[in-house]
């Protein structure tokens, strides 16, 4: 498995986004970290190496966050793991890349109103056909991962009313949110080709569905969670995703048919998970019935129990999920901190500290 983490660069005093990703990336390169420039100039992305267990992944993520934070400090910034800018203007300049300029030209304010950060988890699979079938098997569980991984309740200084506001903003792109069901690799590729040929997308990289076959790696990529406030929470989400893919591959090998979930049902469940997170009801896409978010997570743990046992991770993951339910995830922490202190600047400063926790 591997993890991509997107971060914000902010002013240490005001909490406002700073448009210095190119300078921070240059400094990070001197420290041995290859940063990717994201669409907005206030964003950078790290990429972990291929990891085979949670302990190794945790070590790599801690090191990357530490080094990138140091590079940010050298350029007058702080690194913050938040799904959306906690404070910031409605529009931000895009990074100096030809592809990003083309995106801004074609998609207008969608490009300059970006500045949102996710946690993208890659899991190795045998081939692209398997990746398509894994997506079909995993898609009913995406709302549960969104509820658990929400970390964007505060946006532009106010409580958005959503646990995962990033998901709502992200859904405005042409191919974002929960994916359709695809019968085969050919079905998937013909749909993507139609979107590109019609001008709906620039290229396959703009397939922004919550789960997708990677366009450049032999992996399934799950993109539904916000960037996580701490490394341990990122490892938790990555381990659950890995277990979901392992469980899906077993089902495919047995010849089990994937759940035939209508896209509109999955969209409804995703929207509700984005709004209520861990503190409300979700929709069970398989039964179309309301279910408390903690119960959905119990169902998820039961679904992947054998895979987590094989990884030797069940007890740790079960304990961490229970801790998140009891004490709250990033979204709940953001909201509670803003209510308790009523100062968004201080919230940004505390979030920067949490980014390096561990």
What would you say this structure looks like, in words?
It catalyses: L-cysteine + L-glutamate + ATP = gamma-L-glutamyl-L-cysteine + ADP + phosphate + H(+). Belongs to the glutamate--cysteine ligase type 2 family. YbdK subfamily. ATP-dependent carboxylate-amine ligase which exhibits weak glutamate--cysteine ligase activity. The chain has 358 residues and is an alpha+beta fold. The protein has one domain (2-351): 2-Layer Sandwich (Creatine Kinase, Chain A, domain 2), CATH 3.30.590. It has helices at 21-30, 54-74, 98-107, 109-112, 128-138, 142-148, 165-170, 185-197, 231-254, 263-276, 293-303, 305-311, 314-327, 330-341, 344-355; strands at 2-10, 36-37, 43-47, 78-80, 118-124, 154-155, 158-159, 176-177, 208-209, 211-213, 219-226, 281-284, 289-292. Strands 1, 2, 3, 4, 5, 10 and 11 form a 7-stranded antiparallel sheet that branches. It has a two-stranded antiparallel ribbon with strand order 6-7. The chain has a two-stranded parallel ribbon with strand order 8-9. Strand 12 (281-284) and strand 13 (289-292) form a beta hairpin. Helix 2 crosses helix 9 (231-254) and helix 6 (142-148) packs across helix 11 (293-303). The longest helix has 24 residues, at 231-254. It is globular. The protein starts with a strand and ends with a helix. The model has no long low-confidence stretch (mean pLDDT 96).
Q: What is the number of beta strands?
A: 13
Tell me the β content.
Answer: 5-15%
In total, the number of domains comes to: 1
The largest pleated sheet is described as: 7 strands, antiparallel
Helices and strands, in order, run as EHEEHEHHEHHEEHEHEEEHHEEHHHHH
Total helices: the number is 15
The CATH architecture comes to 2-Layer Sandwich
- What is the CATH class name? Alpha Beta
Distance between the termini: 21 Å
Based on helices, strands and strand pairing, what is the structural class?
alpha+beta
Mean pLDDT: 96
Rg, alpha carbons: 19 Å
Low-confidence stretches: none
CATH topology: Creatine Kinase, Chain A, domain 2
**Tertiary shape:** globular
User: What percentage of residues falls in helices of 4 or more residues?
Assistant: 40-55%
């Amino acid at each position: 498995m591997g993890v991509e983490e997107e971060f914000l660069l902010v002013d240490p005093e005001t909490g406002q986004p700073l448009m210095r990703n190119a300078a921070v990336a240059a400094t990070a390169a001197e420290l041995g970290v290859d940063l990717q420039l994201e669409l907005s100039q206030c964003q950078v992305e790290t990429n972990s190496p291929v990891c085979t267990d949670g302990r190794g992944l945790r070590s790599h993520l801690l090191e990357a966050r530490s080094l990138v934070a140091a590079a940010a400090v050298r350029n007058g910034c702080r690194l913050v793991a938040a799904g959306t800018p906690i404070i910031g203007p409605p529009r931000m300049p895009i990074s100096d890349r030809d592809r990003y300029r083309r995106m801004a030209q074609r998609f207008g304010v969608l490009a300059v109103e970006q500045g949102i950060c996710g946690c993208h988890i890659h899991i190795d699979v045998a081939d692209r056909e398997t990746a398509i079938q894994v997506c079909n098997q995993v898609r009913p569980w995406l709302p549960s991962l969104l509820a658990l991984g929400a970390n964007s309740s505060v946006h532009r200084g106010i409580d958005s009313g959503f646990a995962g506001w990033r998901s709502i903003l992200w859904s405005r792109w042409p191919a974002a949110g929960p994916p359709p069901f695809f019968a085969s690799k050919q079905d998937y590729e013909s749909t993507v080709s139609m979107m590109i040929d019609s001008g709906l997308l620039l290229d396959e990289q703009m397939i922004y569905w919550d789960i997708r076959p990677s366009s450049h790696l032999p992996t399934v990529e799950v993109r539904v969670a916000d960037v996580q406030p701490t490394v341990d929470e990122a490892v938790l989400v990555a381990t659950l995703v890995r277990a979901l893919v392992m469980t899906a591959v077993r089902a495919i090998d047995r010849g089990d048919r994937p759940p035939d979930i209508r896209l509109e049902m999955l969209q409804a469940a995703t929207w509700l998970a984005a709004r209520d997170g861990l503190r409300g009801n979700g929709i069970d896409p398989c039964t179309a019935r309301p279910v408390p978010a903690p119960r959905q997570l119990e169902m998820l743990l039961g679904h992947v129990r054998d895979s987590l046992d094989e990884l030797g991770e069940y007890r740790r993951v079960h304990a961490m999920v229970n801790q998140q339910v009891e004490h709250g995830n990033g979204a709940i922490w953001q909201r509670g901190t803003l209510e308790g202190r009523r100062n968004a600047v201080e919230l940004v400063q505390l979030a920067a500290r949490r980014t390096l926790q561990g």
